[in-house]
Design goal:
By secondary structure, this protein is an alpha+beta fold. The protein contains three helices and five strands, in the order H-H-E-E-E-H-E-E. A hairpin with a 3-residue loop joins strand 4 (154-160) and strand 5 (164-169). The protein starts with a helix and ends with a strand.
Length: 170
């Protein structure tokens, strides 16, 4: 009698193959939903980080202009404290770094317009166009305001004080 009871207990232990396959299928479906959302959120975070850095650089440039009545000279110049006169300047204490540690925001004075002095700050990184959906498209001849999501070919971000942050094609 004890042998029969022991046999029943051992038959009742563990999970059947079908139960395990159902659990694995459920986990796979949940992962299929979560992983793409996580990847998109990381891309959006990188874009937000770049926008914040561009605004910080623009604020530093405007403070510099207020004190000196001109923007620093430069054409495709790296943005770092040296642009503002050295390490102990009151405008930019440290070089802005994006979420993966790049230090390569580029600054150029913009005098080709013939108008007041201006500048452009570029983030040379290339972004997934889907992560730039809500960023406005760069200035165009028609004057109509569009967003990158309408066009679908924006992969870069830059800042111009006349237009703010906008996306451009690479």
């Amino acid at each position: 009698m004890q042998t029969l009871t022991a046999a029943r207990r051992s038959a009742q232990r563990g999970f059947t193959l079908v139960e395990l396959m159902v659990v694995v299928a459920i986990i796979a479906m949940i992962a299929g939903i979560i992983i793409p959302n996580y990847v998109h959120a990381r891309r959006q975070a990188a874009v937000s980080d770049s926008e914040a850095n561009l605004k910080q650089i623009a604020t530093s440039l405007e403070l510099y202009f207020t004190d000196n009545l001109q923007y620093p000279a430069g054409n495709q110049t790296d943005v770092d404290p040296q642009l503002f006169g050295g390490e102990n300047n009151p405008y930019l204490n440290s070089t802005p770094v994006d979420d993966i540690g790049r230090l390569d925001y580029l600054y150029s004075t913009n005098t080709a317009t013939g108008g007041p002095p201006s500048y452009i700050v570029q983030d040379p990184a290339t972004y997934d166009p889907a992560s730039l959906d809500n960023i406005s498209l760069g200035p165009n001849a028609t004057g109509t305001q569009k967003v990158c999501g309408d066009v679908g070919n924006c992969t870069k971000i830059q800042y111009d004080p006349r237009y703010g942050i906008y996306g451009t094609a690479s």
